[in-house]
Design a protein that fits this description.
10 helices, binds fe (ii) ion, mainly alpha, globular
């Protein structure tokens, strides 16, 4: 199993996170920790190879926004999708709005997200990638431990997990017992997108 090279400087990620730095409410160290988590998720997700045109750009955008509003509220999926929609519209990418909303709305799903195509869809790649990092590499979905360690060692997301996401919430996600507000079934409807993400 050959793993992709680790990427750590994607222009879209840098642009989105720098232009939304005020979302960190002055917690610059926390914000940099979030950026590290974003890069970890991108690198894990790329290893699952969601192969569509524009895959890397879509992955970079949805991952940069996926926990964006976690500094403001525990119910952060909907405001994160709203921020993503605003940015997509402002940059002429509104065609990607529904697809990338699904990626954010589905990233805490307990079960795999399946599509008919057989490939790992973007929403499933990001869901797995987030759980790999949140579980501190205990869950790996078949990725080699050495690769997971390399990615985690390259980016220091410690502060994000220690300080920004409340401990009780983290523990619940790691035990896969997250309360309903972390995976609202109506996240798509509430952010004006069609469909339902299910569990
Ligand atoms: Fe995350």
């Amino acid at each position: 199993m050959s793993m992709p090279d680790v990427v750590g400087d994607l222009p879209l990620v840098e642009e989105i996170l720098e232009s939304h730095r005020s979302r960190g409410r002055g917690d610059d160290t926390g914000w940099d920790g979030y950026k590290a988590h974003v890069y970890r998720v991108i690198n894990f997700a790329r290893a699952f190879g969601p192969e569509t045109a524009d895959a890397d750009d879509k992955l970079a955008i949805a991952t940069a926004f996926h926990d964006l509003a976690a500094f403001d509220t525990l119910d952060y999926l909907v405001p994160s999708i709203a921020a993503q929609d605003e940015w997509l519209a402002a940059t002429g990418r509104q065609d990607w709005s529904d697809e990338l909303a699904l990626v954010i709305a589905g990233h805490h799903r307990l079960r795999a997200y399946r599509s008919g195509s057989g490939a790992v869809p973007l929403v499933e790649a990001v869901r797995r990638a987030d759980l790999i990092d949140v579980s501190q590499g205990l869950i790996r979905f078949g990725l080699p431990k050495s690769f997971v360690n390399e990615v985690r060692g390259t980016f220091d997301a410690g502060v994000f997990f220690r300080r920004v996401i409340p401990t009780a919430t983290l523990r619940a996600i790691r035990r896969r017992q997250q309360p309903g507000f972390l995976r609202p079934r109506n996240a798509l409807t509430r952010s004006s997108h069609p469909g339902s993400v299910g569990r």
